[in-house]
Amino acid sequence: MPQADIPVVPGILTAQQCLDTATSIARTQQPSGAIPWSALGHTDPWDHIECAMALTAAGLIEPARAAFAWSRREQRADGSWPIQFRGGTVEDANSDSNFCAYIATGVWHHVLVTGDDAFAELMWPTVTAAIEFVLDLQLGSGEICWGAGPSGRIEEALVTGSSSIYQSIRCALALANHLGEPQPEWEVAVGRLGHALATHSGAFTEKPHHSMDWYYPIMCGALRGDAAESRIDLRWHDFVVDGIGIRCVDDRPWVTGAETCELVCALDALGRGDEAHEQFANMQHLRERDGSYWTGLVFADGKRWPVERTTWTGAAVILAADALSNATGGSGIFRGTDLPRGLEGDYDCECLTSER
Q1: 20 to 30 Å CA-CA from 41: which of 2, 90, 176, 342?
Q2: Which SUPFAM superfamilies has this protein been placed in (predicted)?
Q3: Within a domain: 280
Q4: Is the pTM of this model over 0.90?
Q5: Residue 78 covered by a domain
């Protein structure tokens, strides 16, 4: 049964609509517990966990638990997961460090919402192995390689991926503290990573055309204060399209629902609630009657593209709704509520505002 406190955003999303969206995700879940992008799509470990978080926030605890059980079973001995599965078969055996780290965010979120310490204990070895795998990919300046394969690690670090990893390691530390399992080496590692993101030492491969590179350091807590405000303002008009959401890529006439909802979480984290609510309302044109969401819209010709309704878009909607409504114990996860920052402290650096 769903919980009583389902995210509601008055005038934009009702409790029933939120539950309908969660149900559309649960309908796509496979018997194994895997949650693919769509009924005929593939499963990746990051979007799978985001969907589990949305199910948790909407009170569909059993499907969420099935998703976490799948992650626990499919984790490899080195703590990693393959990048892509389809129908139980591995399609890409390489590992993405961000995909692997995200289990910590999902588990901590589930504990915050449910208060289930037995679940925390059950998932702790999975989280520990995943974070240790990811930290083995950390480079000298604090950044983290985006992936690894049979030939070794891929020594390229991405702003979006490393920002998400920063969030995940902080969630892993919060879980460790909750369980009385201190991890001082993780504290040092996340401090170094946070410093790299805030000072932006040139160690990262830039993807300035992608909106995620713009807001992820803020959504994931690596940047706050004046620098974060300036960063949002600097490229607002490059990405935000009045009335319909934000572009995925700055030079394409394409708005996407998940990116818009992630920006909502970033704006909420900065206390820019009016703008967050406005963007959340703007993307609702992607909603279908059954509660699922189209991935995006090519606004130049009014056509859906890609022509798919993705589980992770619906998941982003639910998590943004929870951030705006403070409905569950996990609603502050992107605000960094009660998350440690690591041993190098709090960063409010202007460097990220001038990288373009």
Answers
A1: 2
A2: Six-hairpin glycosidases
A3: no
A4: yes
A5: yes
